[in-house]
Amino acid sequence: MYTVMIIDDNETELLVAKKALERQYRIIDISSPKAALQRLAKSTIMPDFILLDIAMPGVNGFDFIMRLKTNEKTKNIPVLFLSGDKENTTEMEAYRLGGVDFIRKPIIPDLLRKRMELQSNILDYKSQMDSYNSQLQQTANFQARNAMNLEYFIIGIITDLISQKDPYTGMHSICVSKYMEILLKEMLLSGINYGIDPNDFELILLSSRLHDMGKIGVPDAVLTKTGKYTDEEFALMKAHTTMAANAIQKYAYLLPNNKFLYYTFQMAKYHHERVDGNGYPDRLAGANIPILARILAVADVYDGLVAERSYKKAKTHEEAYNIITQGAGVQFDPQVVAAFQRVHMDIRDAAILIEKQMQQNIAMSQQVMNQQGNPK
């Protein structure tokens, strides 16, 4: 169970937040930012999250987070801001200072729980990846490397190859997998899951990372082209679905009844099908399209809309929401679109976080390169 420190000088809002979260989290509620700083300074165990009001006397929320970021013990604690301020500039400043979310007051308990659930999932994923990376670093011989999880091994190789051909596709796969996670979880919770086994949740998400694996076989000139495709080039691009499927089928006999390959095959081959039968490669319609491919199709299109490319500007979340909503029953499964509508703000927040983390990684990489180029 994660620990959340809630800091708000408004006793009513503090109580609302505490009541909303106390069943799922250990709560430390403090009405004074100075008292919170003193407690953090004395404590050896840090909270997992800080829910922080901005407008407080003495030390406001922005002052508070700046102090956190200068302290080695507290600089990595995720901070979610609370604010009744309607100005976009306040929200932008909150993210600039390192906040991971911005929640407007008055607090809506259900929304607060959803936003905290998203951050908890991100922290879970980070912990898993940290653990996985630690295991890799400790691997000292070939025998230990052979014991690595097969699915992670395959994903690592293929995504690296894809990223070398087209960095956008590698990043796209990460984003789509995250949006797929939010959509799939919502569908499982809603009970409209088309028979998806909840026990395969993580395996499905791993498989979704490979939905564009067939692009390895697409010529670089086509894959990275910024202008409009010719008919021949578009045919080559569309072939990434069948190239992936054919490769999996060719070697599937080596791993019979392997769910990872089964799910990867479904999503890689069919994520461009449309429920009206006008998709590709097989022009399947409605329920004939595997459900995982129908879910992935929404996640895939959303990222394609909101991600900026060298040849197009990114659409806003609202524009992407409208396009996907209008595609219900035409391009997309209506039940999947309904799930998207219920969690679209979580997906928007995930997109913001991924973009922010990517920019931080770019900045860190540039800093390392600069240091290497200027040895002392």
SS strand fraction: 5-15%
Strands ordered across the widest β-sheet: 2-1-3-4-5
Report the uncertain regions.
Answer: 140-148
- Can you identify the CATH class of the largest domain? Mainly Alpha
Helix count equals 16
CATH architecture of the largest domain: Orthogonal Bundle
- The overall strand count is 5
H-E string: EHEHEHEHEHHHHHHHHHHHH
Q: In angstroms, what is the radius of gyration?
A: 23 Å
Structural class: alpha/beta
| N/C terminus separation | 46 Å
CATH-defined fold name of the largest domain: Hypothetical protein af1432
The H-level CATH homologous superfamily of the largest domain, spelled out, is: Hypothetical protein af1432
The biggest beta sheet reads: 5 strands, parallel
Percent range of helical residues: 55-70%
**Which word captures the global form?**
globular
Average pLDDT, all residues: 87
Number of domains: 2
Q: What can you tell me about this protein's structure?
A:
With 376 residues, the chain is an alpha/beta fold. The chain folds into two domains: 3-121, Response regulator (Rossmann fold), CATH 3.40.50; 149-357, Hypothetical protein af1432. The protein contains 16 helices and five strands. It has helices spanning 11-21, 33-42, 61-69, 88-96, 109-138, 142-146, 150-165, 167-190, 201-208, 220-223, 231-238, 240-251, 259-270, 291-306, 317-326, 334-373; strands at 3-7, 26-30, 49-53, 79-83, 101-104. It has a five-stranded parallel beta sheet with strand order 2-1-3-4-5, sandwiched between helices. The longest helix has 40 residues, at 334-373.
